[in-house]
Amino acid sequence: HYGSLTGLNKDEMKKKLGEDKIHIFRRSWDKPPEPLSKNNPYHPLNIEIYKDIPKEKIPDTESLKDTYDRVIPYFKKNIEKKISENVMISAHGNSIRSLCKFLFDISDQDISKLEIPTGNPLILKFDENIKLLDAKYLDKERAKDLIKFS
Predict the structure, then answer these.
(1) Are 25 and 33 in contact (CB under 8 A)?
(2) DSSP per-residue letters across 21-90
(3) CA distance 51 to 58
(4) Using 50, 70 and 90 to split pLDDT, how confident is the model at 150?
(5) For residue 134, what are the β-bridge partners?
(6) What are phi and psi of 93, to 5 degrees?
(7) What are the beta bridge partners of residue 136?
(8) Distance (Å, rounded) from C-alpha 2 to C-alpha 8?
(9) What is the four-CA torsion angle of 20, 22, 99, 67, rounded to 10 degrees?
(10) Tens of pLDDT, residues 12-58
(11) Are strands 122-126 and 132-137 parallel, antiparallel or unpaired?
(12) Mean pLDDT rounded to a whole number for the chain
C-alpha cells in the first residue's frame, strides 16, 4: 500500500516528491509514504473487493516492514509446508521483496538494493528441510544480479 502515492505513476511520484524521497518510500525497510486519505477513491475502504475485510485491518499506508509482517506469517502458515509440491507464487513487488528478504536472509539495509525483474520467474530449490539450495531466474538475459546465493 503506497499510501498517498497510490494511483500515481513513477513520473508523477517523482514530480510530486522528488526522486530521492520516492526511492526511500519504494525501497526502504521501514519508512512508509504519507497516509492515503480515507476519502480517496483508491483507498481500499472505497473498493468493493475489500468490503469483507475488517476496517481496522486496512492500513492507510505501509512500509516494506508492514508488508513483511503480513506476508511471512501467511507464507509460514499456508505455503512453506507445501514447498515440496512445486508451488508457484505470483504477487505484488513488495510482497515478493518481503518473501525474498525472508528466504535469502537479506538485512534491513540491503533490502533496498533488491530489484525484482517484472515477469521473470525466480526458480528456487529447497531440500526436504526447506533449506534453500539454489536460486536462478528463468530468463538469464533479464536476470537481476542482486540476489547472491552461495
Answers:
(1) yes
(2) HHHHHHH-SS-PPPPPPTTSTTSGGGSGGGTTS-GGGS-S---HHHHHHHHHHHIIIIIGGGGGGT----
(3) 10
(4) very low
(5) 125
(6) -50, -45
(7) 123
(8) 9
(9) 130
(10) 888 888 888 888 887 889 999 999 999 999 999 999 999 999 999 99
(11) antiparallel
(12) 89
Q: In the chain, what is the greatest distance between 2 CA atoms, to the nearest angstrom?
A: 49
Helix, coil or strand: residue 116:
coil
Asked if 40 and 63 touch (Cβ cutoff 8 Å), the reply is no
- Quote the crossing angle between the two packed helices 10-17 and 19-27, to the nearest 10°: 120
Q: Which amino acid is at 21?
A: K
Grade residue 73 by pLDDT with cuts at 50, 70 and 90.
very high
> What's the residue count for the chain?
150
Residues 123 and 138: beta-carbon distance below 8 Å: yes
**Is the confidence at residue 132, as pLDDT, over 70?**
yes
What pLDDT score does 149 carry?
Answer: 45
The pLDDT > 90 percentage for the chain reads 51
Q: What are phi and psi of 57, to 5 degrees?
A: -95, -5
Does the pLDDT at position 10 exceed 60? yes
